[in-house]
Amino acid sequence: ASVAVALSVLGTGLAVNQTEVSARAITRATSDDPAKLKQMVEGYELENHTLKNDKEKLTTENSALTTEKNRLTSENEDLAQEKQRLT
């Protein structure tokens, strides 16, 4: 299976733009070849491990960006109040 995820930062938010999933068919000839099946399983396990790590990193990054956005929003509100007070 092939999974492609395109991420982009829009303003201060993180948005998932596209997710593409496709599956490879297992033919009778493939299912009769244990070595080929083992190779496919190992490939899927490696890809799954990589995707889980990527997800964990992106989740952490998203959390940090959300925290930063909240901090900046609060700072912006404080500055707007200060500006109003001074004018």
Automatic annotation (TrEMBL):
Residue segments, region Disordered: 51-87
Superkingdom: Bacteria
Biased composition (Basic and acidic residues): 68-87
Name of this protein: M71 protein
Organism: Streptococcus pyogenes
Name of the gene encoding the protein in the UniProt record: emm71
